[in-house]
């Protein structure tokens, strides 16, 4: 090979190497550009998905809020209905609280009416007296069943919680502060004094 041909070949080889290097650089730039575009598209796509997720979460929270609000309204309505029912039942109980006692007294009233009717034609006053005493005992039994008892009277120490002193008098039979006479009986309902007895107390 001549010297001129040799130089031409070398020049051609250098040109090829330069072209190859240029192509390599261009390829790298192209690859980076494609990667950048792909990343941008991915970011853009990711941004839309995140927005959709946030919107979905907002809608879910709205639905949960609506459900909780409905539950609250139902519970509030149930509570109001319960209060109304309890108040109505309480009113009914107070209104008819004496029903049991009245029912127990009805037979006593019946016997009193029979005694009054019999007394109009009765010639034997002792029988009438016995009938009235029987009705009185029946009335006492009814009161005892309801928890009504008589406040202790004569011979008991004076107690201002159960007795009302209307008179005082010296007594040789009783110590000072003792009840020596009872003008009107007092009564207790279970452990509560519903009427104090009117008494005379020794001074």
Automatic annotation (TrEMBL):
Pfam families the record matches: GrpE
GO CC, alphabetical: cytoplasm
Segments for region (Disordered): 1-51
Feature: compositional bias, Low complexity: 36-46
GO molecular function, one term: adenyl-nucleotide exchange factor activity
Keywords for this protein: Chaperone, Cytoplasm, Stress response
GO biological process: protein folding
InterPro entries hit by this protein: GrpE, GrpE_CC, GrpE_head
Major place of residence: cytoplasm
Subcellular location: Cytoplasm
Amino acid composition bias (Basic and acidic residues), ranges on this chain: 1-17, 26-35
Function in brief: Participates actively in the response to hyperosmotic and heat shock by preventing the aggregation of stress-denatured proteins, in association with DnaK and GrpE. It is the nucleotide exchange factor for DnaK and may function as a thermosensor. Unfolded proteins bind initially to DnaJ; upon interaction with the DnaJ-bound protein, DnaK hydrolyzes its bound ATP, resulting in the formation of a stable complex. GrpE releases ADP from DnaK; ATP binding to DnaK triggers the release of the substrate protein, thus completing the reaction cycle.
Quaternary structure and partners: Homodimer.
Family annotation (PANTHER family): GRPE PROTEIN (PTHR21237), GRPE PROTEIN HOMOLOG, MITOCHONDRIAL (PTHR21237:SF23)
Similarity-based family: Belongs to the GrpE family.
Name of the featured protein: Protein GrpE
Organism: Aneurinibacillus aneurinilyticus ATCC 12856
Gene name linked to the record: grpE
